[in-house]
Write a structure and sequence with these properties.
Elements: H1 2-11, E1 18-22, H2 31-42, E2 46-49, H3 56-66, E3 70-75, H4 80-92, E4 102-106, H5 117-127, E5 131-134, H6 139-147, E6 177-178
Parallel strand pairs: 1-2, 1-3, 3-4, 4-5, 5-6
Helix pairs in contact: 3-4
Length: 187
């Protein structure tokens, strides 16, 4: 009986998520990726770090191959808003990745902090991101988002999809995260 219990334990799924971290084609920064990788591994997740300057086609191909539970796009060069909208369109156009939780963070615009932040975040959520973590956001908020995903789920529940709330409601879509610009993290 003890032998059977040991065998079942060895076959159990490892805890944690399979996560891809990457920058986009125009972003050559790597320290943000090293930070994210170490943070996520410390939390018990398995991380594939695709590195800097990742072409869209390579990102999609690697995510199709890996089948991650979460994709994390990080930008430091200030072009994350424009690059992110292009990349999320490519990811969401792939049937295997259409429901894979995908977040973006870091320096998403070249204007100063707070300049257009809310509109930028809403536009990225509407484009298909499940979370937007602007420069200066809280690491705890990002950790909370990651912790809300269950291992092996590989997708968010089907629903109306990302989008803007009804006009005048003032709230964000369910399941979406937006961090205040002053909260302290650069994804």
């Amino acid at each position: 009986m003890e032998q059977h219990a040991v065998e079942q334990h060895e076959k159990a799924e490892p805890a944690g998520l399979d996560i891809v971290v990457t920058t986009m084609a125009s972003d050559s920064h790597t320290w943000n990726l090293v930070f994210l990788q170490l943070l996520l591994e410390e939390l018990g997740h398995r991380v594939t770090n695709l590195g800097a300057c990742v072409p869209d086609e390579l990102l999609v191909a690697e995510c199709r191959r890996i089948e991650p539970d979460l994709i994390v796009l990080s930008s430091v060069n200030g072009h994350g808003f424009h690059d992110g909208r292009r990349v999320i369109a490519a990811l969401r156009a792939c049937p295997e990745l259409v429901r894979t939780p995908t977040v973006i963070g870091g320096k998403l615009g070249i204007a100063g902090s707070g300049s257009g932040t809310t509109n930028r975040q809403r536009a990225l959520l509407a484009a298909g991101f499940d979370g937007v973590f602007e420069e200066g956001g809280s690491v705890l908020e990002f950790q909370s988002f990651v912790g809300s995903l269950s291992s092996g789920a590989r997708a968010l529940p089907l629903g109306p999809g990302p989008g803007l709330p009804a006009s005048g409601s003032g709230s964000l879509p369910t399941g979406s995260e937006v961090l205040p610009a002053e909260s302290g993290v650069l994804l």
